[in-house]
Structures are given as C-alpha cells and as structure tokens.
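WARN retry 2 of 3 for item q-0093 after timeout on previous attempt; input resubmitted unchanged.
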Amino acid sequence: MEKVRQVIAYKHHFEEFLLAQPIKVQDKIYKVIEIIETYERVPSNYLKAITGTKRLYEARIKLGSNIWRVFCFFDKGKLVILLNGFTKKTQKTPKKEINKAIKLMNSYYEDKNK
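OK item q-0093 returned
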C-alpha cells in the first residue's frame, strides 16, 4: 500500500515504550502506525485528537481488554511525530502523560527552529 504520510519518532520515548511491550502488542502498534501511514482518512478508533490540547493526538491500540496509547502530532500535514506511549488503565487519559507529550511536542519545535 502506498504511504500518504510519514511517521517518525521524536527522541527515544516511543521506542522505549514499544520495546517494553510484549511482541503481540508491538505487532499491533506497528499495524496502527501502518494505518496512520497509508489511510487518507484514519478512523477515529485508531487516531483521535485529544480534547483540550493544541494539535495533540493519540494513536489507539487495543488487544483483548488491554489498551495502549501513543501520543503524536502532525508536522507540516504529512509528517506524524510519535511521542510517548503508555498502558491505559483508567477511563481518563492521565494528565501527567498528556503533559509529558505536550512538553515533548514543544521541545520538538524548539529543536526544529534552532
């Protein structure tokens, strides 16, 4: 399938999160990333904007009854930047995870504008 956008990870947070997961979960995460790369319109069960943030999204991974989230954002439309990920254990996404993602996003733009 042809890619409509490029997905890259910023710093090491995503990779550390990914490698800490069981192989089945890693496969599922790769599948969701592939959907983000190849679908013109990504269904919201895979990618959803986070309410109350500026341009922050979460890639949504579900396997059985377990849920994982990977924060990301779009840079220049066709580039998706992956930030941190976590295992979701509560209804609401923890504020500290969102704040970490926002800090990383800000840091990405600072680095980029240097």
